[in-house]
From TrEMBL:
It comes from the Bacteria. This is DUF4124 domain-containing protein. Residues 80-156 form a coiled coil. It comes from Corallincola spongiicola. Residues 1-22 form the signal peptide.
Length: 162
């Protein structure tokens, strides 16, 4: 690999040397100013000197560290924002699931009103409780899973901010 680097450096220096030796002429043709590598027009144009700029020097270690730290901070901010959006979406999903559970519970009450009226108080309450427990089982596991995910995301946010 060092041999390849030496060859590249050699040809690069030749290219820079030859380009810096090339002449540039400023000419005026039909009232329009042009530039050429060869003399132009009757008078050959005026040769001008072109300054060759040095290649950009590499950044020092401190500048590199600042740059890397800035990128890390931006990445953390993006991750935090993504987590916050996810938390917001999860909270909305929890609200929606809770509303669905309440609606189903209300519908059970409406659908079974006559059955509940005709049953004894104890029997009616047991019937209603069993149907409500089915609804709770249906929704509570999903809601709890979303709450657990929110806690995990909040912990990650706290870790990123700390």
């Amino acid at each position: 690999m060092p041999k390849l680097l030496m060859i590249f450096t050699f040809f690069s220096s030749l290219f820079i040397s030859f380009t810096s030796l090339a002449a540039v002429y400023r000419c005026e043709v039909n009232g329009v100013q042009t530039f050429s590598q060869t003399p132009c027009g009757i008078d050959g144009g005026k040769e001008i000197e072109v300054a060759v700029s040095k290649p950009q020097q590499s950044i020092d270690a401190n500048e590199k560290d600042l740059f890397v730290n800035s990128l890390d901070e931006l990445s953390n901010e993006r991750t935090i924002r993504d987590h916050q959006y996810r938390i917001k979406a999860l909270k909305q999903q929890i609200t929606t699931l809770s509303e669905q559970a309440r609606n189903e519970a209300d519908q059970i009450l409406i659908d079974n009103r006559n059955e509940l009226r005709n049953a004894t108080n104890e029997h009616a309450q047991a019937l209603y409780d069993s149907k409500i427990n089915v609804i709770k089982a249906k929704y509570m596991d999903e809601i709890q899973g979303k709450k657990d995910e929110i806690k995990q995301l909040e912990a990650k946010i706290e870790e990123l901010q700390g």
